[in-house]
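Quick start: load a record and inspect it. Here is 2-polyprenyl-6-methoxyphenol hydroxylase:
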Amino acid sequence: MDEKTVLLPKQGGQVVPLCRTPPLRVDVAGGGPVGLAFACTVKSLLGDRVSVRVHDRRWMRRGNRVVWRGVAEGNNRREQVVTLQSNVWAALPVAVQQRLFVPGRFSEMWPLGPDSPESKGRPRNIKIRWIEDALLDMAQDVYGIEVIPEAYAKPDGWDGLHVLAIADGARSATRDALKDQFGTPSRELFSVDGSPLDERVLGIRVTAKVPDEHTVPLTVAQNRFLFNSLGGGFINMRLTAEEASEIVALGENGPVSCIGSFGCTMRPAGGRFVCDRHRAVFKPSVDKLSYLWPRILDGLRFFGVGAADVVGITSFTLGMQQMSKFTAQLAPSTFGFLLGDAANSLHFWPGRGLNTGLKSALSLAVNLQKRWRGSAFRAADFAAHEGIMQQLQYREKSRAWTTMLMPDSEGVPRGIEDRIREGLQGPFDRAALVQTLFERVLEIKKRLGGRMGSLATDEWYYGRINALDARSLKVMVESGPWITREIGGEEVVVPSAEPAAVAEPARRGLSLVS
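Running the structure step on this input writes:
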């Protein structure tokens, strides 16, 4: 008799074996926020009925624990602040919510909306790095998940594995290794005149001087800068190709591959910004003829911070691609699933990147809870999950694409780069630009006032606007306010987890064998 079989008495003195079904075996490729959130959620929902392993090459062993590698070990940790909508964070297991949302680790600066209804609460800002640290500790300390500090490698055989969750990023090596099953991502739908549309963005990490909420109307009033704060945070700055050409790191013998190539962050050092890893200098910060640096300083000034408040500068490229499917049968009893950026890498301006990733993780975890009964899965078991993934792709990529190619007053799409470039060209009527942007901010302030906390005075907003150079003012006016109506509407709803039941044996993973 199997060691997992126990005997239960039956009426009449007979004894029948009560066999515990084997655990669901799950591997996760990628231990970022989505991979770890999925691992913790599926373990929370299924308990001992699931065995989970998570792989990530950015981890290392320290004593009897697995921790994140730092700069000294060749890993540049992500410092961005992200916004989680309340429909998303409220759907996480309570224990995960309690681990993430501790005082001082999150803020609520954005207003209520369709994906953050009043019944759930306001959106919450939180640092990616904190999510990664908290969930890696939780995986080990609370759920006993096996965390492996190595990249996931496609095995020669699947050896009884039931689920492979692929969450190792937009450039997923695991997805590429399984392209025969998932297909090759296409950029055709997100192209203009046959060329994929990409945007170069500068990420400026700062310490804040004003309450987080005060900057919301300034952010919503234009599309050049986005400030997502948490007592600091990131000012993201969209660039033209000409401005992006200045994003250069200078070594002792000339330009070096650094910022924008390896995800390096340039940090303040003696009046300059220097890469920790390559010791290269951020060229615009030392070039007196820089065209870009004054525009960067104007962006800081707009949000009430200065050059002395900059903690780091990095750069990245944003673009999107279309996936044909998100679920694939890898072997007769093994299914693979794309999650997070490996499934839907998004332009972050609408603030839905991590939200979409977590919705995909929650959808799969709930699907597994509902369908696992100890026997091999069938493709039909995942029809609902695949449908939700296709909905997310359509909803969120349509939303993001509209922010990259925004319609003008005539409804004609215009790329944000064209808008910025036009704004940088004269003539400039500074007084008229100040008035236009100020009236726009006041209208947004009035519209948002009842959906969020207290905002700054009109005079404070006027001071922020009036301090800007005419070129920066015109860029903000030309870039237009956030197109909330065009990208708003109904949101994709992920099914909720069923309450854990323990009354009947089948719900505990047990089955009667006569």
